[in-house]
Amino acid sequence: MSFEVYIHVPFCLRRCGYCDFNTYTATDLGGGASRGNYAAMAIREMRLVRGWQERHGVAEPPASTVFFGGGTPTILPAADLVAMLDAVRDLWGVEDGAEITTEANPDTVDAAYIDALAAGGFTRVSFGMQSAVPHVLRTLDRTHTPANVEAGVRAADAAGLRSSVDLIYGAPGESLDDWRTSVEAAIGLGVDHCSAYALTVEPATTMGRRIAAGLLPKPDDDDEAAKYEIADALFSAAGLRWYEISNWARPGFESRHNLGYWRNVDWAGIGPGAHSHYAAAGPEPAAGLRAWDVAHPRTWGRRIAAGEVPWADSERISGAESLEETIMLGLRLREGLDLAALPARPDETGIAALEREGLVERRGDRLAPTLRGRLLNDTVIERMFDICGL
Predict the structure, then answer these.
(1) What is the average pLDDT value for the chain, to the nearest integer?
(2) What sequence ranges are listed for the domain Radical SAM core (predicted)?
(3) pTM of the entire predicted model
(4) Is the Cβ–Cβ distance between 256 and 99 less than 8 Å?
């Protein structure tokens, strides 16, 4: 079993109008944890978590991946990210050839910053590109320009780091041609990995309130489906194949960290709101354990200062829940769901119906979504739950 570490850095220069992540600007904070002391607090949490693992007999191998997400991890000095990575090495170890990634806002990095990451052991940078079209970036409240993204990717290339870019489709006012421009621009950067996510509008966000007030149009499902098909066609033609519904990469350049999530490996989540997953923890190892940190940096920091693992709560994953997750995650992947690994053989009649409808394809004992199945993935998953008697 692999082991991964996720480190959440919850700070941003400003909050984008569509964002519903656990992020904070300087004006949101006071006491507990701040940008200035964040690395030290996160390292203290790592020590507390490592102690919890030892007390509960959780013996993990060296980390195969470490991922810094946010928020904007690169809002912190590069030395702080390297210090947190060094703490992972000291406490758990990091295997040879491990994938070490940070997300980056293109506005917050330059060549010197990226060189410092490379010197500290990072292997990969994931840039938040979102779009290559200025009016779409404005709608998304993004402050960077396409030139910032290109400069970041070129700096990563020069430092010997892999690059990935994240795109968002379905923003209000984004045309099909706008989206095609963004995908082609991402491909033109020469990166080996691209993610493309449909815009999800949460009611409590600034964008959600503007849409509710009629100031912006609501995203359209058919428009988003058309944009997904455009992305898949353009990425595939450029040699990037889909390996998870929202991710495309040249073979061998997939995000190993995210694949670990989809394959249900163990991971420790560090930072406010971060989740952890332990398949072998506690008195019911087969059931597994999921835990999550308190969300606000102020409370999180105070819990750590008191010597407590800062979990808000945890839950034991039941056998049925574990099976549901196995099905759901497997049907998001190109490698597909391993039918032979399920506790009981599913109803072949139901699977045959999914095949006839062009939603899945069989490859031996594996079942993977087709392009149509990716577009209707929720339906495929619900049908598979029924087929498996869940």
Answers:
(1) 90
(2) 1-241
(3) 0.91
(4) yes
